[in-house]
Amino acid sequence: QSVLTQPPSVSGAPGQRVTISCTGSSSNIGAGYSVHWYQHLPGTAPQLLIYANNNRPSGVPDRFSGSQSGTSASLAITGLQAEDEADYYCQSYDSSLSGVVFGGGTKLTVL
Amino acid sequence: EVQLVESGGGLVQSGGSLRLSCAASGFTFTRYWMSWVRQAPGKGLEWVANIKQDGSEKSYVDSVKGRFTISRDNAKNSLYLQMNSLRGEDTAVYYCARFCGSTSCYSGWFEFWGQGTLVTVSS
Question: Which residue from B minimizes the CA distance to A44?
Fold first, then answer.
């Protein structure tokens, strides 16, 4: 059981908008620790998508955006493309565990 | 271009040891915390350990405390993970990752990752 909770899967048709939630608690997201998001294709290195809640590294399309409120965060993907099909993970810090924590991951399927 | 290249993975018996290495290039190694993150077969990403720029601070996930040791050689731009008393649940792809560039990194993120090295622990 992950400290950060994500839905196991989401899906959407090309061109649509999907969101992936990341629910934490008062010892991680709710304590003000930033949330970061990664895209992971099997057999490849994970890629940073969003850092510090809502910032995109250079090279990441503006179709990807992040938000955070209270003890939760969300990743939104607009204009869904086939190449977006991958696993997505949120990450933060947990003060009770004194360490970095990841969500369980969400598999995005493009229909 | 930032490059992180892991090596040292392989098949090891339960209770055995293995040392992973990560060769870093393309950035000033001494400016960053470095980390190991793993992914067991069919599972999600799991943070394993962090080490501060000068090696003075280290942190570990509870499941590896007392068994794994993270270290670095700044003269060689290299990161290491010594894994002892290996268990079946340690079977995973181990990724080397660049963590944050500050002295305090509670809200840090993994900006660059290596391709990973597979560790398989057999019983």
Answer: B115
CB contact under 8 A, B115 and A36: no
Confidence label for A1 from pLDDT (cuts 50, 70 and 90): confident
- Whether the CB of A64 is below 8 Å from some CB of chain B: the reply is no
Question: Are B107 and A34 a contacting pair at CB < 8 A?
Answer: yes
Residue A29: strand, helix, or coil: helix
CA distance B115 to A47: 11
DSSP state of B64: G
pLDDT of residue B103: 73
Could you give the strand order of the β-sheet that contains A18-23, starting from the edge strand earlier in sequence? A18-23, A72-77, A64-69
Pairing of strands B112-113, B92-98: antiparallel
Closest CA to B33 of B54, B15, B63, B64: B54
Distance between A99 CA and the closest CA of chain B, angstroms: 7
Burial letters B62-101, b for 16+ CB under 10 A, else e = eebeeebbbebeeeebbbbbebeebeeebbbbbbbbbbbe
Please indicate whether, in this complex, the C-beta atoms of A36 and B45 are within 8 angstroms of each other.
no
